Amino acid sequence: MTCEDVVATGRYPYTGRFGVLRAEDHAAVQNAMELVQVAEIGDSLFDRISDGQRQRVMLARAICQEPEILILDEPTSYLDVRHKLEFLSILQKLCRERELTVILSLHELELAEKISDRILCVNGRAVDRIGTPEEVMTAGYITELYGIRMGSYDEGSSDM
């Protein structure tokens, strides 16, 4: 299956019984692929591309469904730093240009702080705190939530 085929599956809810894509469906697929910068790999086989490219293809698939809200569970897992930043930059652009709401789980505190308008912290099974990054990402709260102290790693001790 090519990358374009994978993205096109996002349009199936809009097709009739026979699953035939119309001109507007093909346009939505191309638009989504261009938006997330994967148009140039449309003919590539999905199982032959990098993890970063796969994440963007799957994001294009979701976008061409024209959602109002995207919910993503650790979308940057297994991506190197460059691809994480590219992926998150694309999400920010979507939020601004399409007024799309993105809800995502991240364990990288620095990334969450940099890209989020609001942060919701979960402790166990309960919501512990909701607020802006400035309100939530304080040294005292992070210490309390994770049981760690903020600071730098010292090879000579087990303390951080």
Automatic annotation (TrEMBL):
It is a peripheral membrane protein. GO terms for molecular function: ATP binding; ATP hydrolysis activity. Keywords: ATP-binding, Cell membrane, Ion transport, Membrane, Nucleotide-binding, Transport. Residues 24-77 form the ABC transporter domain. It is found in: Cell membrane. GO terms for biological process: monoatomic ion transport. It holds the Pfam family ABC_tran. GO terms for cellular component: plasma membrane. InterPro entries: ABC_transporter-like_ATP-bd (IPR003439), P-loop_NTPase (IPR027417), Siderophore_ABC-ATPase (IPR051535). This is Iron compound ABC transporter, ATP-binding protein. It comes from human gut metagenome.
